Fold Cystathionine gamma-synthase.
Amino acid sequence: MHPDTCLAQIGNNKAEKTGAISSPIYLSTTYRHPRLGESTGFDYTRTKNPTRQTLEDAIAQLEGGVQGFAYSSGMAAIAGVLGLFGQGDHLLVSHDLYGGTYRLLEQILPRQGITTTFVDTGDWQKVEAAVQENTKAIFLETPTNPTMRISDLQAIIGVAQRNGLLTIVDNTFMTPYLQRPLTLGADVVVHSATKYLGGHNDVLSGLAVAREQELADRIYFLQNSIGATLGPQDAWLLMRGMKTLALRMDRHQENAMVLAKWLTGHPCVKQVYFPGLENHPGRDVHIGQADGYGGMLSFEVVREELVEPLLRHLNLIAFAESLGGVESLITYPARQTHFDVPEAVRNELGVTSSLLRLSVGIEHYEDLIEDMAQAFAASERELAE
Ligand SMILES: *Cc1c(COP(=O)(O)O)cnc(C)c1O
């Protein structure tokens, strides 16, 4: 089946007794045992919950893996999967990645004896050169957040396989509708489902999927032991959002393309980062491994002084953290998502104090352009006074 069909059908045909089309929400935390030594398959909700399982089966099917896992947040999913590693292990990680993951790798995992080298995963040879004797995995995002750098998944997976490493991909920006790293040989995919999968800025959640059963069993053991699982009401809300992912994503990327082109021609804009633009580095690699460009873009304004008034004058586009919802949001990475990344490192990555990130929503693109145009004009007037 096509992903659109899988998405629309999530949870349907599961409630055999009632025929309910919308998946029931099982709030029960515990389940009666028929008799000693017997189980219905459900015992205690942290271990397994019917509503959560419907979601976990859906994401596994969408990503092309054997088993899915739902967590209380994207960070819980990432921390849960990184629980595979311990004392003395070393990880290779995209140098340009989500700030929260950077914080986890820099400030928490070293306490557990896990070390990380941040590398440019856009260049597989640099990744291969950074492999150490104790390296256990490569963790990457593509496109990256916020400068939309592209990594060649097939080449990175090749490095991992030659060196006996796991490949873990944060697929939040693309979603399985546009990119399925497990089908290219990655071992684990993680998501902040808070973003496009949920899609409505109303449910915090994370997902992981493993390609093979042996690894799935280890991730399941960690999920159940650590316990940061997704509650049944949130699992239902996430599935409700996922049903329309295909339609939303199509509109997100249509709008993003229009906005990227419009911004490129604006005199206040120095640089636009969007994989759909002809001159975007890595565009050909991206087209070879994904079915679209997504709805995220970032742009650098010509002067840092424009940032503050611009954010203040936008009316429709909300100045807020997060991404992937139906409402357009603008983020200032240097002060928000990437605040924990040292300034020198940020500048090296292009996450300068003049960079803004736009999560393009599903509104009419003319209204988005009009809002941007009036905010730029008002900001320029103010600075000229
Ligand atoms: C938001 C985000 C996360 C963290 O997810 P939460 O749901 O906020 O915990 C991880 N990776 C990426 C790429 C994100 O955008």
In short: The chain has two domains: 3-242, 245-384. DSSP finds 14 helices and twelve strands in the chain. Residues 73-75, 98, 100-101, 141, 145, 170, 172, 192, 194-195, 204, 206 surround pyridoxal-5'-phosphate (CB under 6 Å). Residues 245-264 form the longest helix (20 residues).
